[in-house]
Amino acid sequence: MRSKKIIKLKHLIYCSKPTCFDFETIKSILTTSRENNSRTGLTGSLIYRSDLYFQFLEGPPGAVTDTYEKIKLDTRHSEIQKIREEITDRRLFASWAMREDSVSTWMWTREEVKSGILKRIKPHQALATFERLSRGADQFIHTGES
Predict the structure, then answer these.
(1) Assigned fold of 9-139
(2) CA–CA separation, 58 and 43 (whole Å)
(3) Tens-digit pLDDT profile for residues 105-120
(4) Which helix (H) or strand (E) holds 10?
C-alpha cells in the first residue's frame, strides 16, 4: 500500500485600500500577478473595487510569504491588514493564477466598507467568503497523492 504524500500549502487573506483605482491599474496588477504566480506556483483570487482590495493567496508557504512581503511594499494600496494565514492541504482556486472579481452584490455595501467591516471581519468569515466564491470557479483539490 502506497502512503500518501501530503504537500503542505499556505493560504493568506488580506485586505487593503486602493490608493489609485482605474482600469489600467487593475490590468497591471492582474497581469503581473498571473505571470509571477504561474512561475511560483501560487493561485488565488482578488476581489476589488474602488474602495477595497480583498485577496486570497495560496501555494507553497515560502512563495506565499515572499509575495505578501512584496504586496506590502506596493504603493497602489494602503492600510494593508492580514486577516488569515494558515497551513492547509487544499487549494480553493487551483486553476486560477489569479481569479479576478469585482465585488459582488452579496458582499458588502460601500457604507459597510467605509465603516470598517473588513477591519472587523473574523478569519473564518473571510475564508468563507472565498470558499463561496470558489464554488463557482473550482472544486476543492487536495494535494495528496493516491
Answers:
(1) Alpha-Beta Plaits (3.30.70)
(2) 5
(3) 557 888 988 999 888 9
(4) strand 9-18
